[in-house]
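Internal tracking record. Fields below are filled automatically when a chain is submitted to the structure queue. Please do not edit lines marked as system-generated. If the sequence contains nonstandard residues, flag them in the REMARKS field before resubmitting.
Queue: standard
Priority: normal
Entity type: single polypeptide chain
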Amino acid sequence: MTNLRLRYQTLEFRDADIHLCTLRDREQFNDPLGIAEKLGISSSFWPIFGLLWPSGLVLAHFMDSYDTGTKRILEVGCGIGLPSLLLNSKHADITATDHHPEVEAFLLKNTSLNDGTLIAFERTDWADNDDQLGKFDLIIGSDLLYEDEHTHLLANFINTHSRPDCEVILSDPGRGRKTKLIKVMQTFGFVDSAVKIPCAAHEGNPYKGHILKFERKISGPVAGEADHHLKQ
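SYSTEM-GENERATED OUTPUT FOLLOWS
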């Protein structure tokens, strides 16, 4: 975090206040060893992980009132990780993952700011096939579909890390790829459902996107059948 200008804020939820350290703005950049560059992360995209985006705030508010029970939960592409921090404050079984090399350091700092227990984290790409994450009962994420190619990569990654009975909750700002993702998720046996968006705003602006919810029961198609459909 050396040479980076940071912003500190406190976000209020029903039963918890989450203290959050983020990058000050999109002008921040620090990759002296070229680690991010080697991962294909350009200087213009480098700071995106470290800001609080509307979709992350909406997802956190949604999860604030969601009964996670004893589910094993994965936040995909967590970025600054607000939903993970909130769930961690509720003592949920949460694991976070992201491709950016600086995410883990910020997650550790923010966990410490909130006096939380260590959040399990693994840096991995959606195209990787050798991560150690395992399977989950609930997978969450916010604003993940930047490019068309992300749709299949994300769906495959979710399916790979889903238990036979699994829920998926994604907040999407409306980048035009919602329908395509729904169709791909259906090939993996997931059924989508409409979800009411919580009353949440980011810096005074109402959220105009969607909460996408998918659910799969044991009776759905197995992963091998879904892979066959995607290759056709």
